[in-house]
């Protein structure tokens, strides 16, 4: 009768306990994997955002550099016009 008790109660209970232990370990591993995937996705998103920011700053600086010669040319033309106007004789007609 002792063998029958072991076969019908003890072994199935041990098997069920082992099964539950294995499921628990599997859930822990899955949680670790999912946490690692979420962390990787977070880092990827942050990296992409930082890269976009760096790209935007770089484009703005490049545009600024592209426009500098135009600005200097306009400044030069304005300076020439100012110098020419200052060189004109001062008369009381326009005052």
Q: What low-confidence regions span 5 or more consecutive residues with pLDDT below 50?
A: none
Radius of gyration based on Cα positions: 40 Å
Overall mean pLDDT score? Answer: 88
Structural class, by secondary structure, is: mainly alpha
What fraction, in percent, of the residue positions are helical?
Answer: over 70%
Multimeric status of the protein: single chain
What's the tally of helices?
A: 1
Q: How much strand content do the residues show?
A: under 5%
Distance between the termini: 129 Å
- Total E-strand runs: 0
Biggest sheet layout: none
Shape, please? rod-shaped
- The H-and-E topology, N to C, reads as H
Protein name: Flotillin-2a-like isoform X3
What do these coordinates show?
This protein is mostly helical and 95 residues long. Helix content is 91%, strand content 0%. The protein has 1 helix and no strands. The relative contact order is 0.04. This is Flotillin-2a-like isoform X3.
